[in-house]
Amino acid sequence: MAEKALTAVVQEAYVQGVSTRSVDDLVQAMGMTGISKSQVSRLCGEIDDKVKAFLNRPIEGDWPYLWIDATYVKVRQNGRIVSVAVIIAVGVNSDGRREVLGMDIGPSEAETFWTAFLRKLARRGLRGVKLVVSDAHEGIKATVGKVLNATWQRRRVHFMRNALAHAGKSGRRVVSAFIATAFAQDDAEAARAQWRRIADQLRPKLPKLAAFLDEAETDVLAYMSFPVAHRAKLHSTNPLERVNGEIKRRTEVVGIFPNEDAITRLLGAILLEQNDEWAVQRGRYMTLETIAPLGDDPTVSFPAIAT
């Protein structure tokens, strides 16, 4: 399916005369130089119907965890080449299984874009979300609290990169080891106490870093309030990494997309293929035993929701 979509996008670029040299070379190699616009249109329509049905399907059941990531691709708009954001959401349901839940394209990662995207997921039936994991995109924290009434987890790797920028070259290793001791704690309360100790120790010599830690504490340690068995998967967007790798590989072949429909066609087909692969996997992404406590159980405590 994804290969077919890639072929369709390459052909569309070619017949519209907006292709790059790499696309022209691909067309020659695939022996497609004699292809007509009507043939391309038919192939595109066939793929678009399947992708549209997949991206607009109803979302059923509870989805305690949601991972969101953004990637950028180039597209032609009104004779100009512009960069657009493609956002992808992957969720784990109350059966512990992963699915691609949605995708959207926009000019930037502004709060209005995130709000529209999450509202669209909610309209399709997304519910029961406890934690949303992503990078610190502008406006996403407020949107997650407002639209999904969920807690937001800032991706740890991205946070560390920003934190170490305040540490100076010589202090990075020591600061990194310091912060790691908070992540090594057994529960949320111990992690928060250790986090504050670290910030206070750093404050005299690195006040900017200490202030950064103060501000980030709630968002970086949110995952610590969730089951131990899940934590390694909750502080990063790892469930999306392989998908993003595949998207990068295929989009580099195209280079510049002829229009936004072509982006949806190719990326939607890649996501559909990945979703099918997850559906037939024998093992769950998270076990039933560990995900069961995430139901509406009052004994499970969660961090404060962003307002």
TrEMBL record:
- The organism named in the record is Bradyrhizobium ivorense
Cite the GO molecular-function annotations of the record: DNA binding; transposase activity
Name the job this protein performs.
Required for the transposition of the insertion element.
Query: Which keywords has UniProt assigned to this entry?
Result: DNA recombination, DNA-binding, Transposable element, Transposition
Source taxon at top rank: Bacteria
What PANTHER family does its record include?
TRANSPOSASE FOR INSERTION SEQUENCE ELEMENT IS1081
Q: Which InterPro entries match?
A: Transposase_mutator
Name this protein carries in UniProt: Mutator family transposase
A Gene Ontology biological process annotation?
Answer: DNA transposition
What the record says about family reads:
Belongs to the transposase mutator family.
Keyword DNA-binding appears in the UniProt entry: yes
